[in-house]
Amino acid sequence: xxxxxxxxxxxxxxxxxxxxxxxxxxxxxxxxxxxxxxxxxxxxxxxxxxxxxxxxxxxxxxxxxxxxxxxxxxxxxxxxxxxxxxxxxxxxxxxxxxxxxxxxxxxxxxxxxxxxxxxxxxxxxxxxxxxxxxxxxxxxxxxxxxxxxxxxxxx
Amino acid sequence: xxxxxxxxxxxxxxxxxxxxxxxxxxxxxxxxxxxxxxxxxxxxxxxxxxxxxxxxxxxxxxxxxxxxxxxxxxxxxxxxxxxxxxxxxxxxxxxxxxxxxxxxxxxxxxxxxxxxxxxxxxxxxxxxxxxxxxxxxxxxxxxxxxxxxxxxxxx
Amino acid sequence: xxxxxxxxxxxxxxxxxxxxxxxxxxxxxxxxxxxxxxxxxxxxxxxxxxxxxxxxxxxxxxxxxxxxxxxxxxxxxxxxxxxxxxxxxxxxxxxxxxxxxxxxxxxxxxxxxxxxxxxxxxxxxxxxxxxxxxxxxxxxxxxxxxxxxxxxxxxxxxxxxxxxxxxxxxxxxxxxxxxxxxxxxxxxxxxxxxxxxxxxxxxxxxxxxxxxxxxxxxxxxxxxxxxxxxxxxxxxxxxxxxxxxxxxxxxxxxxxxxxxxxxxxxxxxxxxxxxxxxxxxxxxxxxxxxxxxxxxxxxxxxxxxxxxxxxxxxxxxxxxxxxxxxxxxxxxxxxxxxxxxxxxxxxxxxxxxxxxxxxxxxxxxxxxxxxxxxxxxxxxxxxxxxxxxxxxxxxxxxxxxxxxxxxxxxxxxxx
Amino acid sequence: xxxxxxxxxxxxxxxxxxxxxxxxxxxxxxxxxxxxxxxxxxxxxxxxxxxxxxxxxxxxxxxxxxxxxxxxxxxxxxxxxxxxxxxxxxxxxxxxxxxxxxxxxxxxxxxxxxxxxxxxxxxxxxxxxxxxxxxxxxxxxxxxxxxxxxxxxxxxxxxxxxxxxxxxxxxxxxxxxxxxxxxxxxxxxxxxxxxxxxxxxxxxxxxxxxxxxxxxxxxxxxxxxxxxxxxxxxxxxxxxxxxxxxxxxxxxxxxxxxxxxxxxxxxxxxxxxxxxxxxxxxxxxxxxxxxxxxxxxxxxxxxxxxxxxxxxxxxxxxxxxxxxxxxxxxxxxxxxxxxxxxxxxxxxxxxxxxxxxxxxxxxxxxxxxxxxxxxxxxxxxxxxxxxxxxxxxxxxxxxxxxxxxxxxxxxxxxx
Lengths: 155, 155, 415, 415
Ligand SMILES: Cc1ncc(COP(=O)(O)O)c(C=O)c1O
Ligand SMILES: Cc1ncc(COP(=O)(O)O)c(C=O)c1O
Known about the structure:
By secondary structure, chain A is α+β, with helices and mostly antiparallel strands. Chain A has six helices and four strands; from the N terminus they run ααβββααααβ. In chain A, strand 1 and strand 2 form a beta hairpin. The relative contact order of chain A is 0.20. Chain C has 15 helices and 17 strands. Chains C and D meet through helix 2, helix 3, helix 4, helix 5 and strand 11 of C and helix 2, helix 3, helix 4, helix 5 and strand 11 of D. One pyridoxal-5'-phosphate sits at the interface of chains C and D.
């Protein structure tokens, strides 16, 4: 990594985990069959993320995947999402989603749970207001999927 | 006349002849029958002048009258018009109308003919751009009447 | 000023905030009594616009760089300021328009075509500014089966609430759109009562706040307004910007007004889908610098206090009513119980235009004509128009005195 | 500069006219390469607006006092300046709008509903900005029987004139509305040839000059344009004002667009009649101060000389074409023969948004997205958008160098 000098702030946004997930998104396929899915669009920039969920017997999320196009931040965020939500109940997933959006807006890290600590890499986006939606797009889609809505409103 | 001091410029516009014709307009009635007539409206201020013409045997204007409402300037201008155009051919009247409009815009007096000298009182209006239309309204109506048009375009 | 409940306006100081008030007209001090047509701008507004253009300008909503983010933040902060100023619940209920006129056209188009039904009627009053009349005439004439009716104005110049009730009782009124303060009579209308009556009859209600928002604190929720419009340049703000408040459910259900960039969600050659409000109603590059200026204007009047501004105006109105009554041959148009700082009048034997020209020579600026309210002038048999003096927060008793003296002089001059 | 045929732009001096260019972003000099979205403002524009508000402000067309006359004169002088700038024959052919977007909506409404016939079609191109697409979609969908078709863009990013000819040959085209310069490809279209083709087929022609008028001298009569639109804020002027040129016979025959004050002749409660153009199309209080600012902007570029501005841009375009070709992994969108100072591009392995954020950290402002031209991006299979650098008269070779270096660094960073 040979970033030019003076780009420390960029590293707040493009932490290694983001660059890594952005370059090689995990779970980047369509879950088929799936129990719930929803699409999030950011019409301003053309970013698009579709989230797929499969539920286990007690209604917990068993598996998650996504398809989409967009910037490193939106793809990394979706990729991290698919790694984080399996095992959560819908309520827990929505609470996590709310926390994530809060972090993206305010920059407050949260290491209280392992899941949040992993996602805290996304908190760096708060310094880049026009990019906050990139980080939250997949999570809006998640909420929509859990609500049984097909398209996420772009907030 | 007890105008307060410092109002000499006002006297350029409101010369005695204007005030007089404004207070007691001449030929302020409907010529009936008449050979031509047209109305001029200034929608911005609600001023309105309708000019009536009767022609003599050789096609010269024999009589002129007007009806209307409006400020001292527009009424005086119409009144002066009805005194000035009798005896003129349509072409002469239109030439006079053009001269009048020129005077109102530029302020140039013209004493080359008796008629123009009389009308030169209206040239004071040029210092008051928003009032120029008041002075020219009747003359637009005159042109329209001579052209056989019923309503004058407001320039 | 330590203790301020309610704060009093220090008019002498306030006047120093307005550079133009220090200028002279033909060597005489400017007595600007045409604020109802457009108000002068305080230094705070001018400087906010300058600062925006000198330090933080870029197009909004578009760039992924700091400067554009700053511009976007400033633009949206202006929206939040307008929201607070009107007491709106959500920032998305604030749509920036060019002026009040565009706000009425927007509602006539998008609410009129989108939510009114054939057979329904729009109700306006006889005292409306053309901005709140002509768009509805155009809607009526669009062949959609939407009617247009008129609430009477009493001889005192007030909205005839009995007539309003009669119209509403017909059951076909979809929208009542009336002024919150007449720009000719000065009448402040009982907005909350009107809204209650309209709502009880199943109608929506829109208020023309072009004048009212300048003179009184406005709270759209307290009033119960469905739509509310005002215009920046009368509120000591820039030209080129106005505000439409619309309740969220209504705006969300309305089709767009103008098409173009920023109001869309997705676009293909064949089809476009619309963004959510307020973006849906703001096509193209907005008046960014003007929004920033309007924000400064709102901050300016808010810091002075709308209550203090209102109190000052009430004092002026009281004083002017008494003083103008002493001017021989003067008759005021209307005698409303609740009057904002606007007086239209006729002076016996002097046409309004001659009068305005005469006053101008003394540095006194009043407007002459029908003030974009022809039907109202016709209603009072004043097709030739009136002269009108209107006050701003910088207007003084001395200026009213100057007006009254000039009126006396005019009468003598033209006698 | 004594001898100046053609004058060269002294860019270093010119830059001193723009206060914002001396500011820094996060401690780095501002390299503003987003002038295509909106241009920065020279001191002359800012000062003209300030002067207007500090010394000569009042509403226009309304007052019978000197201050209002001055404001009216300033407003109409701005119209005359726009007339000269476009080479229009009459000042009444200039309508002030909020921006280009409103100009297209105005023509779509008033020409579209007033003069187009059922069965006729509007022809736009695949490279249009949404401003010159969405209003026509809305007209098509209004149920008036007016169609909408699309002229193809070649792989090089030029207007496909053969396809234009094919469409015109169908004989149903009432209006051709195409850009005079693409805001994505930079393509300058052969306006005069397009107008000749359109007229030969009995169609009217409108040009989107939002970009072109900034980069090239425009003469609407030499082109043969029936309508021509540009927007103030891209021409180094204020936000909140745009210009629509329309040939007099057309404007005179068109019904109004928005209703309200100043656009009427007479008004009764039941009926209104319309003022002559341009007033007919300017409802309500216009953007007075912005018109004054636009006048200053027109004077500013005219004094520099549109030829000198064009020559400078040609030099920049040539330099940028060569320099960007050296950036590894960069592919430019389009390769038009005649390109204005706009370059949209993709950088291998780096999403445009990440790229814009990265560049911003070096003070380099570029735009990322689809630049209000989604169909064009779809046409080239670039749904994810592009990054775009666009030049103004203050842009330097050094800034292009800074961009190129930053692009190299970005590629390394994200690799
Ligand atoms: C080619 C083109 N047309 C139209 C527009 C719209 O301009 P405005 O947003 O000022 O209406 C733009 C700029 O965004 C443009 O580049
Ligand atoms: C009561 C009222 N409504 C509407 C308007 C129109 O405002 P604007 O011209 O800014 O659209 C005005 C001012 O002229 C007004 O006084």
